[in-house]
Amino acid sequence: MGFxxxxxxxxxxxxxxxxxxxxxxxxxxxxxxxxVSFIGPSGCGKTTLLSIIAGLISPTTGNVYIDNQKVxxxxxLSIGYMLQQDYLFPWKTIEENIILGxxxxxxxxxGKIASKLLEDVGxxxxxxxxxxELSGGMRQRVALARxxxxxxxxxxxxxxxxxxxxxxxxxxxxxxxKMLKAYSKTAILVTHDIGEAIAMxxxxxxxxxxxxxxxQTFEVPEEIRNLTPFEARSHSSYSPLFQExxxxxxxxxx
Length: 254
Ligand SMILES: Nc1ncnc2c1ncn2[C@@H]1O[C@H](COP(=O)(O)OP(=O)(O)OP(=O)(O)O)[C@@H](O)[C@H]1O
What we know:
By secondary structure, the chain is of the alpha/beta class. It has helices spanning 46-53, 94-104, 113-120, 136-149, 166-182, 194-200, 222-225, 229-232, 238-253, and strands spanning 4-14, 19-30, 35-39, 61-66, 69-70, 79-83, 154-158, 186-190, 203-207, 214-219. Adenosine-5'-triphosphate is lined by residues 13, 15, 20, 22, 42-48, 210.
């Protein structure tokens, strides 16, 4: 059995007068330490699947297991979530924001953890500052530090780079990739950016139009996986894979 297993998951949203089938019969397995991406047409259920993997919603059918434990209703599993917006609390200092999760979980922690993580993400000495004093890219780096502080078993990244300018986005991709390797984390990235998926992942799952199913899985060649996301974009194997995924995605959208 793999580290993260999505077994036979389907999901339908019900409202008073409509039923929306978001996902249909999803099976996938992710190994510990692996980095995978979900891409697919808009509305195909990627965020729904992340919410199911996070244990935030119960799927209509099927189950998700992390480290052999069922996720839904499991309070022991810590799963990190990084979103497009950083959701830092403006009235709390950077340090308070980083240790908040640990406090909420009642986990014992080292008083220097915020400083150490801030140093790791390249932002030393900003513990006492407030979120409003930082740029968008810096705030996302603090969000990364906050996510890592609770030592999550899995990190779920829902378009965390998409609100940033191009240069900040490339820098943050490199940093996230480096940090996740250093901390041996398993991660899932949802993105609309094929290049980002190739540059950051070991494998890419392409979803079909709603109701989302796994249409195709792409292995990223090893020579790209060993590079930083920035370097990966200029490797000779990058462009052929980009074209292949692009064509497949186009065929799904028409
Ligand atoms: N809470 C909800 N209630 C009803 N329908 C929902 C709800 N959340 C999502 N949906 C619908 O389920 C489908 C899948 O949505 P989801 O956000 O998972 O897709 P997505 O692939 O992440 O989309 P995008 O790429 O545009 O972010 C969409 O048709 C959406 O409108």
